[in-house]
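Standup notes, structure subgroup. Blocker cleared on the pyridoxal-5'-phosphate input:
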Amino acid sequence: MTTSAAAWSARSRAAVWHPCTQMKQHERTPLVPIARASGSWLYGFDGRRYLDAVGSWWVNLFGHANPRINAALTAQLGELEHVMLAGFTHRTVIELSERLAALAPPGLAHAFYGSDGASATEIALKMSFHYWRQRGEHGKDRYVRLAGGYHGETVGALSVTDVALFREAYAPLLRAHPVLPSPAVHDAPDSAAAQRATDDALEALERFLAAHASTTAALIVEPLVQGARGMAMYPPRYLAQAHALTSRHGVHLIADEIMTGFGRTGTMFACEQAAITPDFLCLSKGITGGYLPLSCVLTTDQVYGEFYDDDVSRGFLHSHSYTGNALACRAALAVLDIFADDDVIAANRATAHRWRRMAEPLLAHPRVRAFRQCGMITAFDVEDAGDGFAQRFAVESLHRELVLRPIGRTVYFMPPYTLTDDEFALLVARTGEVLDAC
Ligand SMILES: Cc1ncc(COP(=O)(O)O)c(C=O)c1O
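Run returned:
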C-alpha cells in the first residue's frame, strides 16, 4: 500500500519540527511531501509537480538530480565518505581548497570548513576577534553590521543579524553589536535611490570607524544583495569604499557570500564586481549545488599567519565533526567542473538578459513596483500587499505548480541556472495569475 500525500504530511507534522515555521499553521496549510525531484521540478506523492523557483532556499544551481553531480557522488562513495579532518586530510578537500583559492578574489589561500552558512559566519566572527586578540588588541570585541542584514541563526550569527522577528525571543542572549545604515534599497542597484543610500551608508560607516575602530573587530556585509531583507540591492561602489575604509581603520571586512556566491549576482563572487579581497569570504549554499551541507571561510596569509605558532592555544581551536566532509567536497568539485566546462558565468549573462526581456509582462502588471535584477536574482515588490500576503502568495503559487515564497511584499525568483526559457515563461505567466489572485 502506498502512503498518500496527506498521510506523509500528517506524519511529518507529528515527528518533524520544521525550520522557520509556526507548526500550527500546518493545521490549515498542509506540508508538501516531495517524493522525488528532477531538473527544476519537484514531484509530490500525489502526482503533482512544482517548479522550484527559489532553488530550495537558494542552494540549487544546476537542477535536482543533476547527472554530473550524481555521478561524482557515486564515484566518491566507492572511495571515501568521510574522515575527520583533525590529523587527517584527503584528496577532495585539498583539491576543493586549491580551486576555491584560485577562483576567489586574490589572496584568500586558506580554507576553513563548516557545515551550514551560520557555521561559516561563526567561524569568521571568531577568527576575526581572535586575530586581534593574538595581536594584543583585546578591546576589539564588537562587530558592526548593516540594517536588515542576515547572517544565520545560531547565537553568534544571530547577534550580527538584523531581523527583529528572528531576534526578539533571544534578545537577552545576543550581544548588542552596533547597526549602521544599509546602502541596499528595494530598487535597482543603479537607481538614484540606491546611489543616495550608498552615499549615506558610507558617510555613516566613516563616522563610525573614526570613533569606534579600536573596539571593532570587523564589519560584516552581504555583498551587493541583502537577501533576507527582501532582495535589497546596492552598487559595488559601497563594497569598494567600505573595504578601503575598514582597511584604513584596521577593521576586518567579512564578506558573507553565502547567498551571493557561485554566480548568483552575475560574477562568480559578488566581491569581484568591486575588485576587493575581503579579510574573510564566507561561502555555503550553492557550493555543493544544493546537494549536501558544506560551508567554507576563505582567509588571507595575514590572518592564517597570526595563528601559526608553536603554542597550541594560539591555534584556531574550532571544529565541527563533519568539517571537510569528503562527499560534500566532491559535490562541490563537481559544481566547479560544471562552472568551468559549461562556461556558466558567461552563459548566465546571456540568460539574465533574456529573462529580463521575458519578464516584461510582470513589469507591466499594475501592482508590480521596484522591479530589479542582479545577475540571476529577479525581484519586485507588490503594491497593496496587505497582511498575510507572503503566506497567501505562497499557497496560491503552489496551486499553480510554483514554489515561490515572498519575503514580506517582495516576490523573487532564484531558480536553478538550468531553468529553460519555456520554464521561465511559465513562471512569469503563472506569477501574473498568482498576483491577480492575491
Ligand atoms: C547571507 C546569508 N548568510 C547566512 C545564511 C545562513 O545560512 P544557513 O541557513 O545555511 O545557516 C544565509 C541563509 O539564508 C544567508 O542568506
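Discussed briefly. The longest strand covers residues 368-374.
Next: hand off to the docking folks.
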